[in-house]
Amino acid sequence: MACRGRFAPSPTGPLHAGSLVAALASWLDVRAAGGRWLVRIEDVDGPRCVPGADREILAQLAACGLHPDEPPVWQSQRGALYEAALQRLLAAGRCYPCACSRKDIAAELARRGQAVQRHGELVYPGTCRAGLHGREPRAWRFRVAPGTVHWADRRLGPQQQDVEHAVGDFVLRRADGLWAYQLAVVVDDAGQGITHVVRGEDLADNTARQLQLQQALGLPVPRYLHTPLVLAADGQKLSKQNGAAPLQLRDPLAALNAAAAVLGLPPQAGPLADALAAWVQAWRASYNPGGD
Q1: Is 128 annotated as a binding residue?
Q2: Can you give the pLDDT at residue 286?
Q3: Does 224 show up as a binding residue in the annotation?
Q4: Is 273 marked as a binding-site residue?
């Protein structure tokens, strides 16, 4: 199958330096394999989206010479696909309605002596697995399969996670009616035929959940590569949430060179031919069936 990759930004603001690293890496990865590069605007979390940010992101990519091979798609226009996937999971017994608020979950964990937050998340204790007991449903959760999920990341190497104990049954549709990232990204990657996912290392923790969803829905599994992160002065991941400055593109080549340096690639004197050659040399083997 021909390589198909994607860059999937959330339009909560314009791209910043960390975003460009992921965009450049995904573009280089596809170009190295002679495949097709897509852009997907992940705007399912409407309240967090900034009006016009999607158009600004596309303009920023174009200024850097990163042009998608197919028209971009917007997740906000794909709700029917997510609903169909939810119904398939429901029919298979792999999802259920949940009446718990964060306060309810924290209280139950405290009652069990397990009030420990994981990256700001509360590990769901399975309160509604056996039914709502007369309470009103708020969200839909995926019924996680027990056991450890193993996978190979093309950069990070062998990975594993016991999703049941690390995360618990996770949300597919939120209490406010919005679709959760995990379901939307899995449905869209399969629908767009994505074979190679290249994204920031902060998203590596999501992979085991997505692998379980892919298995439950009978969807193909892409190959994953998680790139190094750009860090802020305080050592935290550079992000829009911690005030990352918008990408300045008065000199697109300088911005691309900064992104290439994070990826361990040489500086560019012009178009991205040198970076592409270096990427091919570094990752050629990982396109082969046994290359992970």
Answers
A1: yes
A2: 75
A3: no
A4: no
Dihedral sign from CA coordinates of 100, 102, 105, 111: negative
- At residue 22, does pLDDT exceed 80? yes
73-74 vs 36-41, strand pairing mode: parallel
Give the model's confidence band at 210: pLDDT under 50 very low, under 70 low, under 90 confident, else very high.
very high
Report, as an integer, the average pLDDT of 24-49: 95
- pLDDT recorded at residue 242: 58
Question: In this structure, what token pair is assigned to residue 236?
Answer: 């935290």
Residue 240, annotated as binding a ligand: yes
pLDDT, position 290: 43
Task: Answer yes or no: is 98 a known binding residue.
Answer: yes
Predicted pLDDT of residue 274: 77
| Residue 64 assigned as binding residue | no
49 is annotated as contributing to ligand binding: no
